[in-house]
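Incident review: delayed structure delivery

Summary: a single-chain prediction request sat in the queue longer than the usual turnaround. Root cause was a stuck worker, restarted by the on-call engineer. No data loss occurred. The affected request and its eventual output are reproduced below so the record is complete for anyone auditing the incident later.

Affected input:
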Amino acid sequence: MSLKCIVDGKRIRNKRALHLLLKKDLKLSDYYGNNLDALWDEISSSIREREIIVKNQEDLIENLGEYGKRFMTVLYDLDKSVSNFDFKMEKGRGF
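Output delivered after worker restart:
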């Protein structure tokens, strides 16, 4: 069974909130470094199937700026490079 994390750009206001959500939903290790390099390392070195769905990408980038753009790039690259990782984008309606 795949571990799934839904990142809603309307709800993520800062990097800390993003990494707390990723760590909790994807069951990342206790030593997860709460940064994009650590995210890459955790996902690319794991045998666990994981999926990240991003909703409201425009809001995510507006809230996180350049970091949001880099986060999206990491997800695209992981999706191409790691067979047990899946990345999807959805246009969300918010809550």
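Verification: The chain has one domain: 3-90.
Action items: add queue-age alerting; document worker restart procedure.
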